[in-house]
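User: I'll paste a sequence; please echo it back and then give the predicted structure.

Assistant: Echoing your sequence first, then the prediction.
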Amino acid sequence: MAFYSLSKKHYGGGSWAAGVASLESFHFPMSGSQMGSFNNVIFGCSIEGSNDFGFKGSEISGIFGLGKSQVSMATQFASLIQSRFSYCFIPFTDAMPSQLILRFGEDIPQPPRLQSTLILQDFLRRRSKYGQTAQGVY
């Protein structure tokens, strides 16, 4: 760890999180028995926030950023994951915990007629957003 920093991050909709961040080293199993090491990754834990995301008394300790900001995990690991991630939404009303399918890079299956969503950069507000228009719920 190179440093610790207290920070406060504001999100869309007015929510915020305050916590501590540091530079960390991450080690991941790669193909075979090889390990991949990534140094100087910005990582942290929130101490308090303005939003419990609907889970009263929850112990949510942070947000795993997948946006375009310099500190998001998707940006920091962009070269490893080919700037690609995929996840499957679970019904919000399902009892927690529930499995969430989150995949990166070449681990993402390539079904026929694959559709994707671009991340849009809002340079004036220095934010990134992504979204999908729902066609229906099945």
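The chain has a mean pLDDT of 70. The beta strands are 4-10, 16-29, 35-49, 85-87, 102-104, 120-122, 127-129.
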